[in-house]
Amino acid sequence: MVAIADAKEQLKNWIDKNLIMKIPGEGKRALVAVIANRVIQHGEQLLSGGMPGTYLLSGTGIIRDGMIDENVLLELRDALGSGTIDIAIPLIGTFALDREAVESLYQALISKG
User: Fold this and answer.
1) How far apart are CA 35 and CA 31, in angstroms?
2) How far apart are CA 70 and CA 109, in angstroms?
3) Contact assessment for residue 32 and residue 89, using Cβ atoms and an 8 Å cutoff
4) Is 28 exposed, middle or buried (0-12, 13-18, 19+ CB in 10 A)?
């Protein structure tokens, strides 16, 4: 388990490298970077505020007591096989994350800085 507070910088760096840098257009990159940074900085408040996804994350044990179970990423990586996760962001575009991207997120979360 990784503390949410400890994972913020690693998550920010991973998003910058794996999502934001792939967005075409400087303005769109800036918009997504600002919003992503805000979500990361206020993630603990968002998760404790009863957002619909919060119940799913806490009910499955992915997030519990201010901690993230990073091992879910290994399960996801293995389940993906050669497939991808497509994430559509309105006005920005669609991103496909493969098993290597999921593995790199896992490695980022378990790194000590």
Assistant:
1) 6
2) 7
3) yes
4) middle
Find the helix or strand (DSSP H, E) in which 95 lies.
Answer: strand 93-97
* Phi, then psi, of 84 in degrees rounded to 5: -135, 160
With the CA atoms of 78, 64, 4 and 106 taken in that order, what torsion angle do they form, in degrees rounded to the nearest 10?
-10
Least confident of 12-21, 40-49, 66-75, 96-105: 40-49
pLDDT digits (tens, 9 = 90+) for 79-107: 999 999 998 888 888 888 899 999 999 99
pLDDT in tens, 24-41: 889 999 998 999 899 888
| Residue 103 identity | E
DSSP H or E run through 101: helix 99-110
Terminal CA-CA length for the chain: 16
Bridge partners, 104 (sequence order): none
Phi, psi of 60 (to 5 degrees): -95, -5
Q: Quick one: what percent of the chain has pLDDT higher than 90?
A: 32
